[in-house]
Design goal:
Blueprint (H helix, E strand, L loop, with lengths): L4 H5 L1 E8 L2 H14 L6 E2 L6 E10 L1 H12 L6 E5 L1 E5 L4 E5 L5 H16 L12 E6 L14 E5 L1 E10 L2 E11 L11
Antiparallel strand pairs: 1-3, 1-9, 2-7, 4-8, 5-6, 6-7, 9-10
Length: 190
């Protein structure tokens, strides 16, 4: 007899940065204007995000531990500038990324990936490459257009997401979010 209870209790989780609505819409409009319809499977605007640490299938108990660890992170916010593009044909991903990622972004990702690894979540040995996936299933060669403008936004929190597949679609739902500290002193705001 196969025990399916454990499998249904697990959730597919990842830590990520959400994109402001205006950035999501700008990316979707730019993507539609610069890529052919058969470039790959476009990611829905609401699902655009920047993954910090992929956790995989995680039990409720492990998820609670990871959430507690994330809640202890004390780090300043930072800016993200999406000004680079590429195509990974082996994984079928066309992405929008950062030429020079902010130090805070790299530190946050490293911290979350380290905590995940110590909690038993497999972490790829590949270096962290901050990016937003624009298309999946882009397995044939695709001409990458020149990115003439960049999207930039302030990051003041990070989130734990759950990937849910239902009715033939994948949705990314925020489970919990944690604030990053302000880099502005009170006296500077006056």
């Amino acid at each position: 007899m196969i025990n399916t209870v454990d499998k249904t209790m697990n959730k597919r989780l990842f830590f990520a940065l959400d994109l402001p609505d205006t950035v999501q819409q700008n990316i979707v409009q730019w993507r539609a204007a610069h890529f052919p319809p058969d470039a790959g499977r476009p990611i829905a605007a609401a699902n655009l995000h920047l993954t910090l640490a992929f956790l995989g299938e995680v039990s409720q108990a492990k998820a609670q531990i990871l959430q507690q660890q994330a809640g202890r992170i004390s780090q300043s916010g930072f800016h993200v500038t999406l000004d680079d593009m590429g195509h990974w044909p082996n994984s079928g991903v066309i992405w929008l990324g950062c030429k020079n990622p902010a130090r805070g972004l790299l530190q946050l990702a490293q911290l979350l990936r380290s905590q995940a690894a110590r909690s038993g979540c497999y972490q790829t040995p590949l270096p962290f490459h901050p990016h937003v996936t624009l298309f999946r299933a882009a397995i044939r060669p695709v001409a990458i257009p020149a990115k003439t403008t960049s999207e930039s936004f302030r990051v003041d929190h990070f989130s734990l997401y759950e990937s849910v597949f239902a009715r033939g679609r994948t949705r990314y739902n925020i489970v919990q979010s944690w604030p990053l500290t302000s880099t502005h002193r009170t006296s500077d705001a006056i």
